[in-house]
Automatic annotation (TrEMBL):
Protein name: Esterase family protein
A GO molecular function held by the record: acyltransferase activity, transferring groups other than amino-acyl groups
Gene3D superfamilies according to UniProt: alpha/beta hydrolase
Source organism (scientific name): Ruthenibacterium lactatiformans
Coiled-coil stretches: none
Amino acid sequence: MAVIKMNFLSQALGMQTNITICLPTYSFADAVADRREVYVPGMKYQVLWLLHGGSGDDSDYLNFSNIARYADENKIAVVMPAGYDSFYTNWHEGCDGAQYYTYITEELFHTLPILFPFSTKREDNFVAGLSMGSHGAMKIAINHPERYAAALIMSGSAIRPKNIAQGLDTVAEHSGPLPTILKRITRLQQEDFVKGTENDVNAIAVEKARSGQPLSQFFITCGGDDFALEGTKYGSDYLKELGYSVYFEEIPGYVHEWDFWDLALRKALKEWLPLRRSILYPGRESV
């Protein structure tokens, strides 16, 4: 497994930023099997675009989960961008002005396959996130079903307008003083900011469901004792009512914690997501 820490100047963000990338490479299992043919010109990887939660950065999953091992076992590249407390949203006024939604969905999605052997086919791309990252992952998958075959949503969902007071109290109670996150949750609840944009996730989900186009499949999970359980169930039920393919699993005994997210990642990569679990070689389905 190759772990790459990439720093570059982002056009969308207007600043240097970091990305952590996992790439399956020649492994001990390959050595034991005496496998010689691993690196072949034109080979590609399926890709999991994995978004971190609030107060985190691109190193979170590498530091607190076994994502590198899971990626290697399932032969999938994992891209973990630094989204900070952005909610993966394009901010204009009252914040930092950075275009985080554009950064993830346009700049990285189109640039990284030029720099790395990533497949750009819909069936080979998946988006995932936990907590704040679940908001980003759900928003991205609903807006771009033509790009992502499936989405993994852990401990949260897209924020729904006009239901803010209880949510803010819950975040403040469980997460302590997080002024930037609370400020942005507030803004994402306001109709003048949301309506007519990619942030109007409920309305866009309805529009996409009615369009007849293929929709991303959703795998949604939350700990049974997590404060985000109600919102996670809401997102799952809402998408099911619209006709989306949704698998929901509540796992008892877990809260908003890395033990749960590591378990969810392992389940998703081994059982849930429609992965090939093989490197994609030219002229062959897999090896």
